[in-house]
């Protein structure tokens, strides 16, 4: 679902699957990517409501999923399941029940900021060749780095959710450069955001929210929001290095 919001003339959307709820949401999916090879992202999870995909996430521990806070906001953990171990939403994999959701205490303060959350599962995930954890990175991504996004976001604005996991390589755009694209509303790009831009026709869309961006085999960002979809503006993601201590201390205390 994408959370649709109006910032002056900008329609900013969080990349969640809007088909699940009747209320507007921020949006994200992969446009211009390709089908991911089987087993190429064993850390990727699908967050589901009534077995419908709403968001992505990354398995960072046998008991913990890292995702965007807006993927959790307004949902009851008892109504949500986590699908792991498959690239196909219609086949294979194992579902796990959620014990609790933890959103950053300053989520959406200011608007669009601190969009990071954790899901604690009721039981440990059984790891195997198709299900693996991934480290979350404390290091800053270098300018111009190419990061890899995976997700089940829509293939075009208003288009269908793909059954098969999609992947795309995107280029990191530094904070100052990203803010310039959003003038005179540059404050929507917060210090906790990491931006990517690959040109028109390539980027995130509805359903990609919470999905991980990976650099050198570590999660460096989580899809947050953008102007749907792949219209020639950078997408903004949660910068994992900025929230590394929050993630670590939250897991240790829960």
Automatic annotation (TrEMBL):
Keywords: Digestion, Disulfide bond, Hydrolase, Protease, Secreted, Serine protease, Zymogen
Broad class of where this protein is predominantly found: secreted
Any one Gene Ontology molecular-function term assigned to this protein's record: serine-type endopeptidase activity
Keyword Protein biosynthesis: no
GO cellular component, one term: extracellular region
Localization: Secreted
PROSITE patterns: TRYPSIN_DOM (PS50240), TRYPSIN_HIS (PS00134), TRYPSIN_SER (PS00135)
A Pfam match: Trypsin
Protein's GO biological process: digestion; protein processing
Protein family (similarity comment): Belongs to the peptidase S1 family. CLIP subfamily.
Name used for this protein in its record: Uncharacterized protein
């Amino acid at each position: 679902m994408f959370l649709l919001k109006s910032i002056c003339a900008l329609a900013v959307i969080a990349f969640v699957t809007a088909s699940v709820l009747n209320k507007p949401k921020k949006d994200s999916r992969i446009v211009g990517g390709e089908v991911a090879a089987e087993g190429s992202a064993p850390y990727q999870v699908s967050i589901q409501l009534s077995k419908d995909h709403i968001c992505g996430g990354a398995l960072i521990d046998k008991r913990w999923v890292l995702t965007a806070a807006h993927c959790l906001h307004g949902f009851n953990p008892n109504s949500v399941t986590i699908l792991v171990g498959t690239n196909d939403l219609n086949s294979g994999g194992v579902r796990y029940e959620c014990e609790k959701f933890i959103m950053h205490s300053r989520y959406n303060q200011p608007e669009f900021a601190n969009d990071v959350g954790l899901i604690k599962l009721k039981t440990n995930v059984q790891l195997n060749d198709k299900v693996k954890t991934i480290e979350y990175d404390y290091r800053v991504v270098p300018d111009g780095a190419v990061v890899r996004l995976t997700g089940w976001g829509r293939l075009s604005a208003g288009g269908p959710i793909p059954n098969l996991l999609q992947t795309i390589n995107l280029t990191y755009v530094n904070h100052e450069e990203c803010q310039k694209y959003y003038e005179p509303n540059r404050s929507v790009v917060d210090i906790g955001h990491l931006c990517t831009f690959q040109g028109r026709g390539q980027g995130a869309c509805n359903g990609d929210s919470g999905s991980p961006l990976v650099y050198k085999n570590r999660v460096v960002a989580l899809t947050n929001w953008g102007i749907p979809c792949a219209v020639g503006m950078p997408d903004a993601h949660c910068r994992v290095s900025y929230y590394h201590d929050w993630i670590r201390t939250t897991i240790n205390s829960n």
